Amino acid sequence: MLNKSYPYYLANQPQQPNTDLVVRDKYSGRIATRVAVPDAKTVEKAIAAAVKATTPMRNFKPWARQAVLRHCVQRFSERRDELAEALCIEAGKPIRDSAGEVTRLIETFQIAAEESVRINGETLNLELASRLDGYHGYTKRVPLGPVSFITPFNFPLNLVAHKVAPAIAAGCPFVLKPAEKTPIGALIIGEILAETDLPRGAFSILPIDGEHASPLVEDERFKLLSFTGSQIGWDLKARAGRKKVVLELGGNAACIVDADQGPHLKHVVERLIFGAFYQSGQSCIGVQRIHAHDDIYDALKKRLVAATKKLKSGDPKKDDTFLGPMIDEAAAKRLHGWIEEAREAGGKLLCGGKREGNMLQATLMENVPADAKANRMEAFGPFALLQRYSTFDEAIAMVNDSDYGLQAGIFTDSLDHAMRAWNELDQGGVIVNDIPSFRVDSMPYGGGKLSGFGREGIRYAIEDMTEIRLMVMRES
User: Fold this and answer.
1) Could you read off the pLDDT of 3-54 as tens digits, one per residue?
2) Which residues sit opposite 386 in a β-bridge?
3) Phi, psi at residue 102, to the nearest 5°?
4) Which of 101, 107, 248, 378 is catalytic?
5) Sign of CA dihedral 75, 81, 84, 86
6) Best CA proximity match to 345, nearest among 362, 321, 328, 367
7) 78 counts as catalytic
8) Catalytic: which of 107, 115, 284, 378?
9) Which of 12, 183, 368, 432 has CB 3.0 to 4.6 Å from 347, enough for a Cys bridge?
10) How far apart (Å, rounded) are the C-alpha atoms in residues 38 and 10?
């Protein structure tokens, strides 16, 4: 069970001035707990505390940062069941998937702990001409200073981890705004961070609404803004001023199934079903567009429809539930409307398509027009569409016919096709012989076009949160 209420964290300390934010059980709709909400003065105090903590965090030695991260790994492991239950309740994520996200939370902090003691510089050869004899160059990486983070509802633990863990490893004080719909996971992380020896002001976790989050975007005392969320990120970038900005703004991921995959269809279908409908499709790299070769299209469609119809939906707290609720009824209505629009435009419904409250059936369609919202925009729900292709050139063109460019997948036995996909798909990542939903927390993750820019992944985030400092020395 969740606590009756949760504090926010200001300069490492819990604060409970009110219980104004209601957090609901996303399946039952009942009030699950209440959370303290900070005011504008508190946001200013958090920023000022982060600025004050800049030098102490910079002087906080790598071994001490590693100790903090290792403490988090230990405490997350000890509180694994509590974290999974909280995630299941506040996000409506099936309990098995919630447990999996806790595992990734632990792994992400473990990777950060390892990286925290190998943030290295390099030696530069400057003796490039006779006039430079005796000159030597050296670089090191130093923390940027205060950074701000804004995270979404769909991975309330792991997407927070991908910002918080590298900030600690890099030595950057931070202010985090978790999603109002799912703040509990971030606040439990804050509770555990408060147990450590981090310098005062190293972190604040403030569940504020978008209206009061403007200072996290606009205040010039922050040196970096990292935002994961919707297309509103472009507006935030325009308001961010001179600070670094990292944006991850979603996608409508495609997956190619090549002509040679007939013998592997059982495995392919299992992975596509997972990628399309895992946590009700509320993933930036969820499988949305499936491009299958003419030779295997009918067989693949038959298997996909049969497997989709077998998925069990319902209470996410039950171990055998695969498909839980969407985050709220408005999200379910939005996608259901796109499905109906696609049907009216000539798309064929293969299975699913019905909605009750925030529960939307796992839905497959084919023949969806290229300009339909269900094809061009990010579905972010339990929906996928099938499309035929005849040549590999056509498949490449179909995947690239998107305003997004986060990740794509391809199932193929052809090395040539795999290499062409890597070279020609306009995507941040190409996953060969698996779904675009595949992610390991150490790998570079991010994309282009409307999907944003910059890369997450612990080492890459640390690079963003540090800057190179050069020293040149001349032999005396």
Assistant:
1) 999 999 999 999 999 999 999 999 999 999 999 999 999 999 999 999 999 9
2) 290, 366
3) -65, -40
4) 248
5) negative
6) 367
7) no
8) 284
9) 368
10) 9
